[in-house]
Amino acid sequence: MTDAEPGVRLMLVDDDPMGLLLTARALRERGFEVLDFERPDDALAALGAGGIDCVVADVLMPGMDGFEFCRRVRATRYGEALPVLMLTSLDEDEATRRACEAGASDYCIKSGNWTLLAHRIRRVLQMARLERDAGRGHAAPGSAMQAATVGAFDWQPAARRMRGSADLFKLLDWRDPPASLHDRHLLALIAPADRRGLRRAMARLLAGGPTVRRELEVRTRGGRLRRLRIDVHQVLCTAGGMLEVNGAVHDVTPSAGGDAAVYRLTHYDGLTGLPNRTWLLERLQRPRPPQTVGRLGLAVLDIDRFRQIGETLGQESTDRLVGELAQRLRRLSAGGAERGADGWIEAVVSLRGDAFALLLEGLADGEAALAIGRRAVEALHEPFRIASRELFLRASVGVHVGEDDELPARRIARSELARRAASAAGGNAALAFEPSMEGAGLDRLEMERDLHYALARKELSMHFQPQVDATDGRVVGFEALMRWVRGGKTQPAGTFIPLAEETGLIVPFGEWAIVESCQALAALRRRGHLDCLMSVNLSAQQLRTGRLPGVLRTALEASGVPADRLEVELTESGMMRDAEVAVAELTALRALGAGLAVDDFGTGYSSLAYLTRLPLTTLKIDRSFVQDVDASERSRAVARAIVELGANLHLRVVAEGVETDAQRRVLIELGCPMQQGWLFGRALPIDEALAFADAHGVAATEVAA
Fold it and tell me: pTM higher than 0.70, yes or no?
């Protein structure tokens, strides 16, 4: 199944070649037909040919930025009614305002979550269809935000008292309604069958069940028959400790259905039924009444390791898990009058996928907000049961209590910075925003931006660490390691590689690394080092693209090196993340003749049964066992077991991270002479690696044909 509908043709515009490549590839994989352009002028020229269903354009482009491009699209004959989605790394109110003024249909923050982008594209396409069906053509900027809510109500179940907006009573032909009334007066207007169904749905909601969305037949006090839809999205605890249900009423009789559907699409999440980011931004923009007690705060919650969980469960079960998460957070928002004194959760909001926001009201201080955040973490400790599995989730929560006049986007951004800090500290915790986090967050955004340009700017390079026979120091191979020089400074691999994984850039980076490693191997062979092996690290993400065997075959053919001299290297935990896919893809690689190494062996969570199914050629003893192999009997026992396992399975065994001569000698005694580490040499640029091989290698006497 794909995320797109058949025949949807997108125009994608982004001056960043790497960003354009990644986004276009991801959207094509999800079933869209994509025309991609680096230059806005070229895209405008192509627009005149027609046949485009949606335009997706980056904001930050030199010369003509995305805002100006959107205005010019709207000025064309074909672009007046086209859905236009602005795509940018900016997350500011000013950028949102400019996008609306330029005529954008929607505005999406750049990320590596391609499924979220596909969902956003589907939404703007659906909105455009609804507007056409309603006979309105292209909506003016912001029109969706002004549409559709006919009335609102608050209901206190314990007292059975209800308050309604003026628009609600006007819809019901009710003149001079009281400030509040018994709920039976409104229930009496509903058809009996619908009334019973509504009561059952409300009872389930109050017991912690799903949100309520029902269409009802109503006879107004003026005798008119109307069809109304009731949407209830939250049950909250008031400052007085009473439960209160908030809801909206939409007129969905035939003449009014279109606007209600548009409002629903723009303000609520389709999977959970919760209010979305648009709703939250509008809610935060509203001034607080002068008599409001306590302070306003926000908590942002994200599930730790959710990507790995989703890859294991599959899409259907993941959606069910997100729904269960939403319900548990709703129960937390309605779950205790004793919290009213220091603050409470006014609303639960779906931000994206597994990310939620908790709108906090009545807070005594920042510590009260942090206490609610910690309760949210604890609420997820009870197991979730999905598809006959019992899952235990950990969450990272960031909280922020700002001033009443703080910009909504800044309030969300600061809560998100605190959430990231909680995640970086190990997760399963809540942290409050501190000003020092802002600099770190900006640094990360700038690094992510620069990483998108790293290949195009030729800032990436491969360095090569020698692997030697430790008995005589002879070079037997090299491990290719990626380096990034940003602004003249080499970035730690432990910083930029995880960021590349998170953004999806690791896939094109890994494909580039394969080509570079094959070329380096060809250079070694031209110097006579025919027996040298080249090992290149890959990401588990590359296994899921289905392209890896083809990329490897092309690189081998272009460089002219034999496949059996190249070895691809993956971590044990990475391969086991989706073991069935790993077995299939890696078997295809071995069919080409390339070797396969398991990095960090013994540190993951693999099953030996799966390892015996993988077509391995090499095991690598992790440095955590090597660093004290000369002093710790436990480390020696683990190293000995890996060496014996390799011998029994006829695999090459390489110890990595060797730094002392004592470690070298013990590993030789254990039967592992193949070693690499700083004792023998650091990772070197290609020219220095070739010179190292000349000095320490045993060159072949003739070059193979």
Answer: no
Instruction: Tell me the backbone φ, ψ of residue 134, rounded to 5 degrees.
Output: -80, 0
Pair 613, 649: CB distance under 8 Å: no
Q: Hey, how many other C-beta atoms are within 10 angstroms of the C-beta on 276?
A: 19
Amino acid in position 148: A
Residue 362: C-alpha distances to residues 265, 292, 315, 612, 690 (Å): 30, 8, 38, 59, 67
| Residues 52 and 84: beta-carbon distance below 8 Å | no
CA angle, corner 345, sides to 343 and 349, nearest 5?
150
CA–CA dist 165, 150 (Å, integer): 9
Question: Rounded CA gap, 567 and 265, in Å?
Answer: 49
Nearest to 557 by CA among 607, 508, 514: 514
DSSP structure class, residue 89: S
The band of 529, judged by pLDDT with boundaries at 50, 70 and 90, is very high
Here the tokens at position 582 are 């790993």
Q: In what order do the strands lie in the sheet with 33-37?
A: 33-37, 9-13, 54-58, 84-88, 106-109
* pLDDT, tens only, 574-598: 666 666 677 888 888 899 999 999 8
With beta carbons less than 8 A apart as the criterion, state whether 248 and 358 touch.
no
More confident residue, 535 or 545: 535
Bridge partner list, 154: 163, 246
What is the residue-wise DSSP string for 616-637? --EEEE-HHHHTTTTT-HHHHH
**pLDDT top residue among 301 and 228:** 301
Q: How many helices (H) and strands (E) does the chain have?
A: 26, 27
Burial per residue of 413-434, b for 16 or more beta-carbon CB atoms within 10 angstroms, e otherwise:
bbbbbbbbbbbeeebbbbbbbe
3-state secondary structure of 142: coil
Task: Give the whole-angstrom CA distance, residue 397 versus residue 520.
Answer: 46
**In the block, which residue shows the tokens 């990310």?**
355
Q: How far apart are the first and last CA of the chain?
A: 48
CB atoms within 10 A of CB 489: 7
